[in-house]
Amino acid sequence: MPLKRLTVTAVRNLHPVTLHPSPRINIISGANGSGKTSLLEAIHILGLARSFRSTRLQPVIQHGQDACTVFAELVLSNGLACSIGITRGKQADYQIRIDGQTVRSTAQLAETLPLQLINPDSFRLLEGAPKQRRQYLDWGVFHVEHQFLPVWQRLQKSLKQRNSLLRRGRIQRSMLVPWETELVSAGERIDDFRRSYLLRLKPVFEEILARLLPLDDLTLSYYRGWDKERGLAQVLDDQFERDSQLGYTQSGPQRADLRLRVKGMNAVDILSRGQQKLVVCALKIAQGYLLRQLGASQESVFLVDDLPSELDERHRRALCSLLEDLQCQVFISCVDDQQMQDCWKNDTPLSMFHVEHGRIVQTE
Ligand SMILES: Nc1ncnc2c1ncn2[C@@H]1O[C@H](COP(=O)(O)OP(=O)(O)OP(=O)(O)O)[C@@H](O)[C@H]1O
Ligand SMILES: [Mg+2]
């Protein structure tokens, strides 16, 4: 579901610009500090109402300006056109519009524009806390399972209530019952969603990884967040005393994780930086392929910041070929566009953009 027209105003050092990106591959080149990542950041804000560089949006607003705006016209998978826009002011106020209507939930934005980001921080998917991997998994579930969001919201609410009661100290076991009933019902459904999504993702991931680098002994497994042998209700019951002492719920779907291992050891402790980058790329690209296979309502848009770094020519080409076969819209930034030039088939729609001191010019 490509961006057909993109307008960016007052984002970091970028001059106001309207671009007509290719529905497939878009290469953004330029010197360090020219504004390449800022352009990807602008698209990210459009899809998720937040940056991938700072937790707050304030630093993204161009110095001396009161607000930044990103606006795009999209072509939906059903062929219809749609417009989305986001304006973020200095007072933490933001306005999201879809087809001219103000919307309150960023979930609607994410649903309209499923974004996948691959950047140097993506390594955190392997080395970081389980939360990163849960978010990765839930991104996919969210886009293929429409019931996911309401059930996930029920889970968050019941968990918050249970934890807040636990923190109060001496409480009656019975006070927790209504929240636990809700937690168990939502938690087990979330687990089902995650498990069946992963079952479909795994073979796609393995196939993609094999095209990028042969790592036969890499395994991807799912930990649901609580004991395999016992139901969630039983676990909550058994751990009540301990949970009360700790003031929070130790086990449950809020602890789920994906485990990547090579020869039984943590992949992150074994693989080189380049190999880790390729594994992360395979994980993210696999989600794009799966979404397509499952006929999700929208196709993903990929943002790949600094694609060539840490990859040799063979792996760079293998990655480009995967992104190309994905048939999604891809925005790739790089310092030197020479490295990215002859990686594509002749009939792949390709646009090249060059950035200089915040000014973006289409060169091809
Ligand atoms: N709020 C802001 N207003 C104006 N300029 C900003 C703002 N925030 C950052 N900048 C500047 O924007 C420029 C573009 O940064 P960006 O990270 O997009 O560059 P880049 O092309 O990705 O560079 P690199 O190749 O080093 O990754 C930097 O020079 C930075 O100092
Ligand atoms: Mg950059």
TrEMBL record:
Keywords: ATP-binding, Cytoplasm, DNA damage, DNA repair, DNA replication, DNA-binding, Nucleotide-binding, SOS response
GO process terms (BP): DNA replication; DNA synthesis involved in DNA repair; double-strand break repair; SOS response
Stored InterPro entries: DNA-binding_RecF, DNA-binding_RecF_CS, P-loop_NTPase, RecF/RecN/SMC_N, RecF_2
Keyword set includes DNA-binding: yes
Coiled coil: none
GO molecular function, one term: ATP binding
Presence of the UniProt keyword Nucleotide-binding in the record: yes
One Gene Ontology CC term in the entry: cytoplasm
Start and end residues of each RecF/RecN/SMC N-terminal domain: 3-358
Coarse class of the protein's main subcellular location: cytoplasm
Domain of life: Bacteria
Residues involved in ATP binding: 30-37
Annotated localization: Cytoplasm
Main function: The RecF protein is involved in DNA metabolism; it is required for DNA replication and normal SOS inducibility. RecF binds preferentially to single-stranded, linear DNA. It also seems to bind ATP.
UniProt similarity note: Belongs to the RecF family.
Name listed for the protein in its UniProt record: DNA replication and repair protein RecF
Lineage: Bacteria, Pseudomonadati, Pseudomonadota, Gammaproteobacteria, Pseudomonadales
